């Protein structure tokens, strides 16, 4: 009987060993090594016309918060559950607004875009249309200014107070 029990244990161990050996191994992922050189350099956050407009916005709206180059996913979110939430989230993560005007409680008043010649390209027009539609659906006012006719502080106040 002891011999039979020992034989059964030996067979079970052999079967387990065989199954473990037969199981396909996952391929090893390549190790990410730290680069020896970091190929980055600073760049200006705003173009010269954007800087001019930024300071006019700050002057015109002293009781509000003005942020520059804000990713749309920072202030828009999806309504409820969406079957294709990854694709929808990705679309707003890839877009930003030139400026965002907020109340002191961080609630959004308006998004501002500065239009220049680069917005004449078909891909930029498509991107601008997406922004208009997404902001409109979220109830966020979009104010667009042209780089060739930058608004005065009074014109900015009039546009934003109409919100």
Would you summarize the structure shown here?
By secondary structure, the protein is α+β, with helices and mostly antiparallel strands. It is built from 5 helices and 4 strands.
Structural class: alpha+beta
In order across it, which strands form the biggest sheet? 1-2-3-4
Strand content: 15-25%
Helix content: 40-55%
Sequence stretches where pLDDT stays below 50 over 5 or more residues: none
**Number of β-strand runs:** 4
Major sheet, described briefly? Answer: 4 strands, mixed
**Mean pLDDT, nearest integer?**
85
Give helix and strand order, one letter per element, not per position: HHEHEEHEH
What does the overall shape look like?
elongated
Continuous helix count:
5
Alpha-carbon Rg, integer: 29 Å
Give a written overview of the molecule.
The protein is α+β, with helices and mostly antiparallel strands. The protein is 42% helix and 17% strand. The chain has five helices and four strands, in the order H-H-E-H-E-E-H-E-H. Strand 2 (96-102) and strand 3 form a beta hairpin. The N and C termini lie far apart (91 Å).
Task: Describe the secondary-structure layout.
Layout: H1 2-22, H2 48-60, E1 65-71, H3 85-93, E2 96-102, E3 108-115, H4 122-138, E4 141-146, H5 153-161
Parallel strand pairs: 3-4
Antiparallel strand pairs: 1-2, 2-3
